[in-house]
Amino acid sequence: MPIYEYNCKNCEHKFEEIQKISDASLIKCPKCGKESLQKLISAAGFRLAGGGWYETDFKSNGETKRNLVDSKTSDASK
Known about the structure:
Elements: E1 3-8, E2 14-18, E3 37-40, E4 54-55, E5 66-67, H1 68-76
């Protein structure tokens, strides 16, 4: 589920809320109780873990998995 950021226009309280995409936006501030929340637009936060991107889709039986990050750095050093 995505994490949404909200800001209260009344008391400037900022917080995050985990909600389903289909959930309605929050309107009531948990700090001041006023119906003055505004959903903020922010960058999605995610982390790519591991050694790089692997080319694994649509391989024939003879081909092996290779790390695309390593192949680009080795090509650049030639």
